[in-house]
Amino acid sequence: MSLILGLFEAQMLVLAAAIIGRGGIALRSLGALLIVLCGMLTPFAIGYAGFYDRWPWLSFAPFAVPLAMGPLLYAHLNALIFNRSIPRWHAVLPVIQFAYQAVAFCLPLPVRGAFDREVQRPWLDPILAVLLLASMVGYVVVGLRALRQHQSWLLARRSDLAAARRVRAALIAYAAIVAARTGYLIADALIVPLSYLDMFGFYVVLAIVGNYLAIEGWRQADARPQPIVESVRGDWRQVAAEWMDRIEQHGWWRDPDLDLAELARRLGTNTAYLSRGLNEGLGLGFAEAINGLRVEHVAARLRDGSDGDILTLAIDAGFGSKATFNRVFKNRFGVTPSAYRRVSTDKNDAERPDLQRTA
After folding, report:
1. Residues 273-314 pLDDT 10s
2. Residue 249 CA to its chain's centroid (Å)
3. What number of other Cβ atoms are within 10 A of residue 64's Cβ?
4. Full domain range(s) for residue 286
5. Mean pLDDT in the chain?
6. Are 137 and 175 in contact (CB under 8 A)?
7. CB-CB contact of 272 with 230 (8 Å)
8. Measured between alpha carbons, how far is 349 from 64 in angstroms, rounded to an integer?
């Protein structure tokens, strides 16, 4: 057991050092994550070899800081997706865990033994298990949200999705650790208490996933990242046009509950960026842009000779009230919807002059 974990750990450490040496936020955070995974393997690798029996003073040595896994994964993904660091508060719990272990390690050996029996195992270990699982699941969730945003941003620019696939692979690998950890916790709590030796399978999974991340990180160290970046002022018109194409293509304007925040989420951006893009790229606010697509749809139905009720057409297009629809329609075409229908039905397409639109 020790040999298997030790070999995995040695390879991870070598690749972690090589990855960190390549520089960059994404690679440094990945290298740090690999070192943390090695630290989690160390107590078991040396424990299965009998180190703790021979040298009891090694107990509480701060090798493993599992609460650092989630923040470091998020730091890696954040660097790949947004090309930025994460806030420092993400490091609070890992630092506390490491400091607690370091202080306990400095206590006299008899005190450490008594503390482990009376406090650590019955009280702190269950709390740490729940906290660790919550941290792992939480960072998977925020990672998935960031991944969806990244994919939407790349699709909006007709970009290659290789960068998003790289992010997804790292997230899936970490999710495998979360799934294995959850399974062992459930087995320990509901089926039978697990011993030190029973946890070997989980640490094999941890070692395999860690080596996968290390190998892929080294292999793709020179891959060109495609982080989400804001366009410069001169690009707003193109970006806004791409957004409007996607909104029209997916028919999102039909949703009567669509608001700025929901549209930003679907486009893979944020509300400030979306609002600025519409204003500077098209000279329109959110409501003007969406209602413009809606009245265009209704007008097209009227030109095609639809005999449906105008209010029904307006509601189908996403308008919430008749008054809003009439106001927007008249501002857009210069006439009421009823007048527009009369003109459309009284004249043939070849004879009917185009109606003059107003801004």
Report:
1. 788 888 888 888 899 999 999 999 999 888 887 777 888 998
2. 25
3. 19
4. 233-346
5. 88
6. no
7. no
8. 76
How many Cα atoms within 13 Å fall on the side-chain side of residue 107?
17
Query: Going by C-beta distance under 8 Å and a sequence separation of 6 or more, which residues neighbour residue 240?
Result: 277, 278, 280, 281, 282
Q: What are the φ/ψ torsions at residue 194 (nearest 5 degrees)?
A: -95, 140
| Spatial separation of the C-alpha atoms in residues 105 and 63, rounded to whole Å | 11
CB 75 within 8 A of CB 42: no
Q: Is residue 359 included in any domain, yes or no?
A: no
Tell me, yes or no, whether 15 and 158 share the same domain: yes
Rounded Cα distance, 65 and 71, in Å: 11
Please tell me what DSSP assigns to residue 55. -
b/e burial code for range 74-112 (CB count within 10 A of at least 16 → b): bbbbbbbbbeeebeeebbebbeebbeebeebeeeeeeeb
DSSP 22: T
CATH at residue 312? 1.10.10.60
Percent of the chain residues past pLDDT 70, beyond the cut: 93
Q: Do residues 75 and 86 lie in contact, with contact meaning Cβ atoms separated by under 8 Å?
A: yes
Please check whether residues 61 and 182 belong to one and the same domain.
Answer: yes
Q: How far apart are CA 139 and CA 181, in angstroms?
A: 14
End-to-end CA distance of the chain: 75
The packing angle between helices 260-267 and 271-282, to 10°, is: 90
Q: pTM of the entire structure?
A: 0.68
| Least confident among 93-107, 143-157, 159-173 | 143-157
Number of compact structural domains in the chain: 2
Structure tokens at 309: 């009720």
| DSSP-assigned states of every residue in 180-243 | HHHHHHHIIIII----TGGGHHHHHHHHHHHHHHHHHHHHTTTSPP----PPPGGGHHHHHHHH
**Do 300 and 176 belong to one domain?**
no
Its sign, for the CA torsion 317, 319, 323, 328, is negative
Residue pair 326/336 in contact (Cβ under 8 Å)? The answer is: yes
